[in-house]
Amino acid sequence: MVKYIFYLRDVFLMNRKRVIFVLMLSIATLILSIIQPAVIQQLMDQGILKQNIQKLGLLFGLLILVAFIQCILKYIMAIIHIKIKKEYSYYIKIKIFNHISNLSGSFFSDKKTGELVKVLENDIYTIENAGIDLIIDVIFNVITSIWAILILCSINFQLLFVVLFIELIIIITQQYFIKHMYKKVEELRCVSGRSMNFTEEFLSNILNLILVKADKIFMRKFREIEKINITKTVEYMRFSEGV
Q1: Which residues cross the membrane (predicted)?
Q2: Contact, 19 vs 87, CB < 8 A?
C-alpha cells in the first residue's frame, strides 16, 4: 500500500499539468455525453415527428458535431495517457538501473544476465500495461470525486451522503484489486523465472540430456511449469482487465 501511494505521488507530480488537462477533457466529454441524448430526443420530436426539415438538418448536424468533438477529445486523452505511461516507465527504468549499479558484486555473481534482463523487462511491462493504468485511473477518480462533491455540496446536501457512500465502496473495491494485483504479479514473476531458468538449464545441458535420454523427463517438467505459467498469466490478465 505504501509503494502504491508513492506511485500515485510520482505519477501526479510528474504529470500535474497533464492530469489536470485530461480531467478538464473528461468533464467536457461527460457534458457532451449528457447533451447527446438530449439532441437525439429533439431530433426525434422536432425533426422527424413534426417533419421539420430545417430543424432535422440542424439537429442532425449538431449531433454529428457532438460525436466528432467527443472522438477528438478521446483521441487527445489517449495520446496523453500513452505519454504518461511511457515517460513513467522510463523513470522507473532509470531508478532500477541506479539501484542495480549500487549493488554488491556478489549479487551479480549469483544471477545470470539473461535472468536479470527478463525480470527487469517483465516488471516494466507489468507497470506500464497494468500498474500505471490503475494509478492514473485512481488519480482521475479522486480528482473527479472531489469535483463532484464540491458541486453536490452546493446543490443537495442529502445527495452528497449517497455519493460519499458510493465513493467509499469504490475505494474499498480498488484497494482489494490493488492488493491482489501485487500478489498476482509476484506469482507471475516467480513462475516466469522458473520457466526461463528451466529453458536455460536445458540449453546449457542439452547434449548430456540427450545422451542419458533425459530429454523426455525435461519436456514433461517443462509442460507442467508452462501450464502453471499460463494459468497465472490468465489470472493476472483477469485482474488487470478488471474481470
Answers
A1: 20-44, 56-76, 158-178
A2: no
